Amino acid sequence: MKNFTQDDSKVEVTGTEAKYYDTFMNIISLGTYPSFIKKAIRDMKLKEGEEILDLGCGTGRNDCLMLKYIGDKGKITGIEIGEEMKKKFLANCNKPNVDLINNRIDHPFDLQKKFDTIFISFVLHGFIQEKREIIINNAKNSLKPGGRFIILDYNEFDIDRSGFITRFAIRKMECPLAEDFINRDIKSVLKKVGFNSFSEDLYYGKKVRLLTAGLN
Hints:
7-stranded mixed sheet; Rossmann fold; 9 helices; alpha/beta
């Protein structure tokens, strides 16, 4: 595998891309992203009253969808450092039961609180492996007993055997660290820190995965 540094990452979106991030996602996905993300959030099987931590919450699009399932008794805490993203989050998801924290997710942290579900969406692939492991440990240490860590990101697959559009998208348009992520066995990393039950939902021809890891 190629030796990447965090400087190779494109995970911290700024400027015009941040300002119009949701629109860009809709365009890049040929208009399929809104229906896809609604299905993925539904597949999380959230329950009323859940307390959720969203790592790298971005524009708040996902959190607004999750509110439908957790109701007024539930609570969402988003973590984000991008200034443009935080502004979009507060504009999109300004609710009494939604909080936003300015904090890095790739440094060890202790939020002095535990959560039922921790969610991370298309963020983990944008970090080098050492930082991915820090993020996973942060999630594990922030979960209540029996809690779930849910990762929505690329699945493991053979890029060389994929179609031209997939190869082009991953190698020319995506964060350079995405291919490294696709080649990793993320479940084995999760197992090492104590996650012991797994379930999957697959999308986009099994190229995208909603991976749920449980602490039982």
